[in-house]
Amino acid sequence: MLKIACVIPAWNEEKNIAQVIKNVRPFVDKIIVIDDASKDATSKLAEEAGAYVIRHLINRGQGAALQTGNDYALNLGIDIIVHFDGDNQFLAEEIKDMIAPIIKNEADIVFGSRFLEKKANLPLFKRLIIYPLAQAFTRLILGIKLSDPQNGFRAMTRQTAEKIRIMNREMAHNSEIQTKAFSYKLRVAEVPITVIYHHFGQKLSGGFKIIKDLFIYKLSK
Amino acid sequence: MLPQQIIALLIILIFVIKLFTQKKKEIINQTEFFSWLIFWFIAGLAIIFIKNIDGFLAELGVSASGINFLFYIGVLILFYFIFRLRLIIAKLDRQLTDLTRHVAIKEAEKKYQK
Protein backbone atom coordinates (compact mmCIF):
# COMPACT_ATOMS: atom_id res chain seq x y z
CA MET A 1 0.00 0.00 0.00
CA LEU A 2 1.46 3.36 -1.06
CA LYS A 3 1.86 5.94 1.71
CA ILE A 4 0.61 9.40 0.74
CA ALA A 5 1.50 12.66 2.49
CA CYS A 6 0.09 16.10 1.97
CA VAL A 7 2.62 18.92 2.40
CA ILE A 8 0.97 22.25 3.26
CA PRO A 9 3.09 25.39 3.53
CA ALA A 10 1.37 27.92 5.78
CA TRP A 11 2.07 31.49 6.80
CA ASN A 12 -0.44 33.25 9.06
CA GLU A 13 -3.22 30.85 8.04
CA GLU A 14 -5.03 30.50 11.38
CA LYS A 15 -8.37 31.20 9.67
CA ASN A 16 -8.08 28.31 7.19
CA ILE A 17 -5.52 25.75 8.36
CA ALA A 18 -7.76 23.61 10.61
CA GLN A 19 -10.45 23.36 7.90
CA VAL A 20 -7.85 22.53 5.21
CA ILE A 21 -6.43 19.71 7.37
CA LYS A 22 -9.93 18.39 8.07
CA ASN A 23 -10.75 18.42 4.33
CA VAL A 24 -7.50 16.74 3.29
CA ARG A 25 -7.42 14.04 5.99
CA PRO A 26 -9.67 11.43 4.25
CA PHE A 27 -7.44 11.40 1.17
CA VAL A 28 -3.92 11.04 2.61
CA ASP A 29 -2.05 9.09 5.29
CA LYS A 30 0.01 11.95 6.75
CA ILE A 31 -0.41 15.71 6.76
CA ILE A 32 2.70 17.84 7.13
CA VAL A 33 2.21 21.55 7.78
CA ILE A 34 5.23 23.81 7.47
CA ASP A 35 4.60 26.91 9.52
CA ASP A 36 6.80 29.51 7.88
CA ALA A 37 7.30 31.63 11.02
CA SER A 38 3.66 32.66 11.34
CA LYS A 39 2.82 35.35 13.85
CA ASP A 40 -0.61 33.89 14.56
CA ALA A 41 -1.89 30.55 15.93
CA THR A 42 -1.26 28.53 12.73
CA SER A 43 1.09 26.00 14.42
CA LYS A 44 -1.18 25.44 17.41
CA LEU A 45 -4.31 24.95 15.31
CA ALA A 46 -2.56 22.66 12.83
CA GLU A 47 -1.20 20.52 15.66
CA GLU A 48 -4.62 20.31 17.31
CA ALA A 49 -6.06 19.23 13.96
CA GLY A 50 -3.62 16.32 13.95
CA ALA A 51 -0.96 17.38 11.46
CA TYR A 52 2.79 17.08 11.82
CA VAL A 53 3.91 20.67 12.29
CA ILE A 54 7.37 21.78 11.30
CA ARG A 55 8.11 25.35 12.21
CA HIS A 56 10.62 27.63 10.46
CA LEU A 57 12.17 30.01 12.98
CA ILE A 58 12.27 32.77 10.37
CA ASN A 59 10.12 33.33 7.29
CA ARG A 60 11.77 31.76 4.24
CA GLY A 61 9.01 31.70 1.65
CA GLN A 62 6.73 29.10 0.08
CA GLY A 63 9.41 27.36 -1.99
CA ALA A 64 11.62 26.85 1.06
CA ALA A 65 8.65 25.58 3.08
CA LEU A 66 7.76 23.02 0.39
CA GLN A 67 11.33 21.69 0.31
CA THR A 68 11.28 21.37 4.11
CA GLY A 69 8.01 19.45 3.78
CA ASN A 70 9.48 17.19 1.08
CA ASP A 71 12.55 16.45 3.22
CA TYR A 72 10.39 15.57 6.21
CA ALA A 73 8.04 13.42 4.11
CA LEU A 74 11.03 11.53 2.69
CA ASN A 75 12.27 10.93 6.26
CA LEU A 76 8.84 9.47 7.11
CA GLY A 77 9.16 7.00 4.23
CA ILE A 78 6.33 8.50 2.17
CA ASP A 79 5.75 7.17 -1.38
CA ILE A 80 3.65 10.00 -2.86
CA ILE A 81 3.88 13.66 -1.86
CA VAL A 82 1.05 16.08 -2.61
CA HIS A 83 1.64 19.84 -2.44
CA PHE A 84 -1.47 21.67 -1.32
CA ASP A 85 -2.11 25.31 -0.39
CA GLY A 86 -3.06 26.28 3.15
CA ASP A 87 -5.53 28.99 2.19
CA ASN A 88 -8.39 26.67 1.25
CA GLN A 89 -8.35 27.50 -2.46
CA PHE A 90 -8.00 23.91 -3.69
CA LEU A 91 -10.54 21.11 -3.38
CA ALA A 92 -9.28 18.24 -1.23
CA GLU A 93 -11.37 15.64 -3.10
CA GLU A 94 -9.28 16.40 -6.21
CA ILE A 95 -6.23 14.87 -4.50
CA LYS A 96 -7.39 11.46 -5.71
CA ASP A 97 -7.45 12.77 -9.33
CA MET A 98 -3.95 14.23 -8.85
CA ILE A 99 -2.40 11.01 -7.57
CA ALA A 100 -4.24 8.70 -9.99
CA PRO A 101 -1.63 8.95 -12.83
CA ILE A 102 1.12 8.12 -10.28
CA ILE A 103 -0.76 5.14 -8.84
CA LYS A 104 -1.35 3.85 -12.39
CA ASN A 105 2.40 4.30 -12.98
CA GLU A 106 1.76 6.71 -15.86
CA ALA A 107 3.53 9.75 -14.36
CA ASP A 108 6.36 10.72 -11.99
CA ILE A 109 4.97 14.16 -11.35
CA VAL A 110 1.47 15.59 -11.81
CA PHE A 111 0.67 19.29 -12.11
CA GLY A 112 -2.77 20.73 -11.45
CA SER A 113 -4.14 23.03 -14.13
CA ARG A 114 -6.86 25.66 -14.05
CA PHE A 115 -6.98 25.85 -17.82
CA LEU A 116 -8.06 22.36 -18.82
CA GLU A 117 -11.62 21.08 -18.47
CA LYS A 118 -12.57 22.59 -15.15
CA LYS A 119 -13.09 26.28 -14.69
CA ALA A 120 -11.49 28.44 -12.05
CA ASN A 121 -13.09 31.73 -11.06
CA LEU A 122 -9.92 33.51 -12.16
CA PRO A 123 -10.00 37.31 -11.82
CA LEU A 124 -10.20 39.04 -15.23
CA PHE A 125 -6.83 40.84 -14.95
CA LYS A 126 -5.12 37.56 -14.15
CA ARG A 127 -6.89 35.69 -16.95
CA LEU A 128 -6.21 38.28 -19.64
CA ILE A 129 -2.86 39.80 -18.65
CA ILE A 130 -0.83 37.96 -16.01
CA TYR A 131 -1.33 34.34 -17.09
CA PRO A 132 -0.83 34.83 -20.84
CA LEU A 133 2.42 36.68 -20.01
CA ALA A 134 3.54 33.97 -17.57
CA GLN A 135 2.63 31.26 -20.07
CA ALA A 136 4.59 33.00 -22.86
CA PHE A 137 7.61 33.35 -20.56
CA THR A 138 7.60 29.71 -19.44
CA ARG A 139 7.06 28.45 -23.01
CA LEU A 140 9.56 30.66 -24.80
CA ILE A 141 12.29 31.14 -22.20
CA LEU A 142 12.05 28.03 -20.01
CA GLY A 143 10.69 25.67 -22.69
CA ILE A 144 7.87 24.37 -20.48
CA LYS A 145 4.79 23.23 -22.36
CA LEU A 146 2.20 23.13 -19.60
CA SER A 147 -1.17 24.83 -19.62
CA ASP A 148 -0.78 26.36 -16.14
CA PRO A 149 2.58 27.99 -15.35
CA GLN A 150 1.78 28.92 -11.75
CA ASN A 151 -0.13 26.25 -9.88
CA GLY A 152 0.71 25.08 -6.39
CA PHE A 153 -1.34 21.87 -6.52
CA ARG A 154 0.98 19.04 -7.57
CA ALA A 155 1.79 15.43 -6.72
CA MET A 156 5.06 13.55 -7.10
CA THR A 157 6.63 10.21 -6.39
CA ARG A 158 9.24 9.74 -3.72
CA GLN A 159 11.93 9.35 -6.41
CA THR A 160 10.86 12.64 -8.01
CA ALA A 161 11.06 14.47 -4.67
CA GLU A 162 14.57 13.05 -4.21
CA LYS A 163 15.61 14.33 -7.66
CA ILE A 164 13.96 17.76 -7.64
CA ARG A 165 15.45 19.97 -4.95
CA ILE A 166 13.62 23.28 -4.71
CA MET A 167 16.22 26.04 -4.57
CA ASN A 168 14.02 29.10 -5.18
CA ARG A 169 12.65 29.91 -1.78
CA GLU A 170 9.85 32.20 -2.90
CA MET A 171 7.28 32.02 -5.71
CA ALA A 172 9.75 31.16 -8.50
CA HIS A 173 9.69 27.56 -7.19
CA ASN A 174 6.70 26.80 -9.47
CA SER A 175 8.69 27.45 -12.64
CA GLU A 176 11.74 25.76 -11.12
CA ILE A 177 9.88 22.51 -10.38
CA GLN A 178 8.34 22.47 -13.88
CA THR A 179 11.70 23.20 -15.55
CA LYS A 180 13.45 20.48 -13.54
CA ALA A 181 10.69 17.95 -14.24
CA PHE A 182 11.27 18.40 -17.98
CA SER A 183 15.06 18.64 -17.84
CA TYR A 184 15.27 15.42 -15.75
CA LYS A 185 13.02 13.81 -18.40
CA LEU A 186 10.40 12.78 -15.86
CA ARG A 187 6.98 11.55 -16.96
CA VAL A 188 4.81 14.65 -16.56
CA ALA A 189 1.01 14.72 -16.43
CA GLU A 190 -1.50 17.54 -16.08
CA VAL A 191 -4.82 17.16 -14.31
CA PRO A 192 -7.69 19.67 -14.40
CA ILE A 193 -8.37 21.18 -10.99
CA THR A 194 -10.68 23.76 -9.48
CA VAL A 195 -9.39 26.88 -7.77
CA ILE A 196 -11.55 29.00 -5.53
CA TYR A 197 -10.12 32.48 -5.20
CA HIS A 198 -10.56 34.11 -1.80
CA HIS A 199 -8.25 37.01 -2.63
CA PHE A 200 -6.43 38.26 -5.68
CA GLY A 201 -3.16 36.34 -5.06
CA GLN A 202 -0.12 37.03 -7.26
CA LYS A 203 0.17 40.53 -8.72
CA LEU A 204 1.94 41.59 -11.95
CA SER A 205 4.88 42.80 -9.82
CA GLY A 206 5.00 39.28 -8.34
CA GLY A 207 5.46 37.90 -11.86
CA PHE A 208 8.45 40.16 -12.47
CA LYS A 209 9.89 39.14 -9.10
CA ILE A 210 9.66 35.48 -10.16
CA ILE A 211 11.62 36.24 -13.35
CA LYS A 212 14.23 38.19 -11.32
CA ASP A 213 14.55 35.33 -8.77
CA LEU A 214 15.01 32.76 -11.55
CA PHE A 215 17.69 34.98 -13.12
CA ILE A 216 19.60 35.48 -9.85
CA TYR A 217 19.32 31.75 -9.08
CA LYS A 218 20.83 30.88 -12.50
CA LEU A 219 23.73 33.31 -12.00
CA SER A 220 24.54 32.37 -8.41
CA LYS A 221 24.50 28.60 -8.89
CA MET B 1 51.27 68.43 -8.56
CA LEU B 2 47.80 69.98 -8.41
CA PRO B 3 46.10 70.51 -5.01
CA GLN B 4 43.28 68.14 -6.12
CA GLN B 5 45.86 65.40 -6.70
CA ILE B 6 47.32 65.92 -3.23
CA ILE B 7 43.85 65.71 -1.65
CA ALA B 8 43.08 62.51 -3.61
CA LEU B 9 46.38 60.96 -2.52
CA LEU B 10 45.71 61.87 1.11
CA ILE B 11 42.29 60.17 0.89
CA ILE B 12 43.95 57.06 -0.55
CA LEU B 13 46.52 57.19 2.26
CA ILE B 14 43.69 57.19 4.84
CA PHE B 15 42.18 54.10 3.15
CA VAL B 16 45.57 52.35 3.08
CA ILE B 17 46.15 53.08 6.81
CA LYS B 18 42.65 51.74 7.53
CA LEU B 19 43.51 48.67 5.45
CA PHE B 20 46.66 47.98 7.51
CA THR B 21 44.69 48.44 10.76
CA GLN B 22 42.06 45.93 9.58
CA LYS B 23 44.78 43.46 8.64
CA LYS B 24 46.46 43.90 12.06
CA LYS B 25 43.13 43.25 13.81
CA GLU B 26 42.60 40.23 11.50
CA ILE B 27 39.28 41.61 10.26
CA ILE B 28 40.30 40.86 6.66
CA ASN B 29 42.33 37.94 5.34
CA GLN B 30 45.62 37.98 3.40
CA THR B 31 43.96 37.78 -0.06
CA GLU B 32 41.54 40.64 0.65
CA PHE B 33 44.38 42.72 2.10
CA PHE B 34 46.57 42.34 -1.00
CA SER B 35 43.66 42.82 -3.43
CA TRP B 36 42.74 46.15 -1.83
CA LEU B 37 46.40 47.18 -1.48
CA ILE B 38 46.93 46.62 -5.22
CA PHE B 39 43.67 48.48 -5.95
CA TRP B 40 44.72 51.56 -3.95
CA PHE B 41 48.26 51.38 -5.33
CA ILE B 42 46.91 51.51 -8.92
CA ALA B 43 44.49 54.31 -7.94
CA GLY B 44 47.44 56.27 -6.45
CA LEU B 45 49.54 55.77 -9.60
CA ALA B 46 46.62 56.86 -11.80
CA ILE B 47 46.34 60.09 -9.80
CA ILE B 48 50.08 60.81 -9.85
CA PHE B 49 50.30 60.16 -13.61
CA ILE B 50 46.97 61.79 -14.53
CA LYS B 51 48.69 64.01 -17.17
CA ASN B 52 50.17 60.92 -18.84
CA ILE B 53 46.69 59.34 -18.90
CA ASP B 54 45.37 62.54 -20.55
CA GLY B 55 48.08 62.25 -23.21
CA PHE B 56 47.49 58.53 -23.69
CA LEU B 57 43.73 59.05 -24.16
CA ALA B 58 44.36 61.89 -26.64
CA GLU B 59 46.63 59.58 -28.62
CA LEU B 60 43.86 56.98 -28.67
CA GLY B 61 41.48 59.65 -29.95
CA VAL B 62 39.28 59.56 -26.80
CA SER B 63 37.83 62.99 -26.10
CA ALA B 64 37.41 62.44 -22.31
CA SER B 65 40.05 63.83 -19.96
CA GLY B 66 42.05 61.45 -17.74
CA ILE B 67 40.02 62.23 -14.63
CA ASN B 68 36.74 61.59 -16.47
CA PHE B 69 38.11 58.33 -17.79
CA LEU B 70 39.09 57.24 -14.25
CA PHE B 71 35.61 58.17 -13.10
CA TYR B 72 33.99 55.96 -15.77
CA ILE B 73 36.29 53.08 -14.86
CA GLY B 74 35.42 53.65 -11.18
CA VAL B 75 31.69 53.43 -11.93
CA LEU B 76 32.20 50.19 -13.87
CA ILE B 77 34.21 48.70 -11.00
CA LEU B 78 31.48 49.73 -8.55
CA PHE B 79 28.83 48.03 -10.68
CA TYR B 80 30.94 44.89 -10.76
CA PHE B 81 31.26 44.92 -6.95
CA ILE B 82 27.50 45.43 -6.54
CA PHE B 83 26.86 42.48 -8.87
CA ARG B 84 29.31 40.28 -6.93
CA LEU B 85 27.75 41.34 -3.63
CA ARG B 86 24.30 40.44 -4.98
CA LEU B 87 25.52 36.94 -5.82
CA ILE B 88 27.19 36.56 -2.41
CA ILE B 89 23.96 37.67 -0.70
CA ALA B 90 21.99 35.13 -2.78
CA LYS B 91 24.38 32.39 -1.63
CA LEU B 92 24.14 33.46 2.03
CA ASP B 93 20.36 33.56 1.68
CA ARG B 94 20.36 29.95 0.48
CA GLN B 95 22.59 28.92 3.39
CA LEU B 96 20.22 30.66 5.81
CA THR B 97 17.30 28.70 4.30
CA ASP B 98 19.24 25.42 4.67
CA LEU B 99 20.02 26.25 8.30
CA THR B 100 16.39 27.19 9.06
CA ARG B 101 15.23 23.92 7.46
CA HIS B 102 17.80 21.84 9.35
CA VAL B 103 16.77 23.32 12.71
CA ALA B 104 13.03 22.96 11.90
CA ILE B 105 13.34 19.29 10.92
CA LYS B 106 15.53 18.43 13.92
CA GLU B 107 13.02 20.09 16.26
CA ALA B 108 10.13 18.22 14.60
CA GLU B 109 11.97 14.89 14.85
CA LYS B 110 12.57 15.47 18.56
CA LYS B 111 8.93 16.49 19.10
CA TYR B 112 7.36 13.51 17.30
CA GLN B 113 9.75 10.89 18.67
CA LYS B 114 8.35 11.45 22.17
Description of the structure:
The complex is a heterodimer of chains A (221) and B (114). With 221 residues, chain A is of the alpha/beta class. Chain A has a single domain, classed as Alpha-Beta Complex (Spore Coat Polysaccharide Biosynthesis Protein SpsA, Chain A). Helix content of chain A is 40%, strand content 16%. In chain A, helix 1 links the parallel strand 1 and strand 2. The relative contact order of chain A is 0.17. The mean pLDDT of chain A is 88. In chain B, helix 1 runs antiparallel to helix 2. Chain B is built from 4 helices and no strands. The interface between A and B is medium-sized, with 21 and 17 residues.
Key terms:
heterodimer; A: 221 residues; alpha/beta; Spore Coat Polysaccharide Biosynthesis Protein SpsA, Chain A; 7-stranded mixed beta sheet; 8 helices; 16% strand; B: 114 residues; mainly alpha; 88% helix
Produce a short descriptive summary.
The complex is a heterodimer of chains A (221) and B (114). With 221 residues, chain A is of the alpha/beta class.
Q: How do the helices and strands line up, and which of them pair or pack?
A:
The complex is a heterodimer of chains A (221) and B (114).
Chain A: E1 4-10, H1 17-24, E2 30-35, H2 42-48, E3 52-55, H3 62-75, E4 80-83, H4 95-103, E5 109-113, H5 124-140, E6 154-157, H6 158-163, H7 173-183, E7 188-192, H8 204-220
Parallel strand pairs in A: 1-2, 1-4, 2-3, 5-7
Antiparallel strand pairs in A: 4-6, 5-6
Chain B: H1 3-24, H2 30-48, H3 50-60, H4 66-113
Helix pairs in contact in B: 1-2
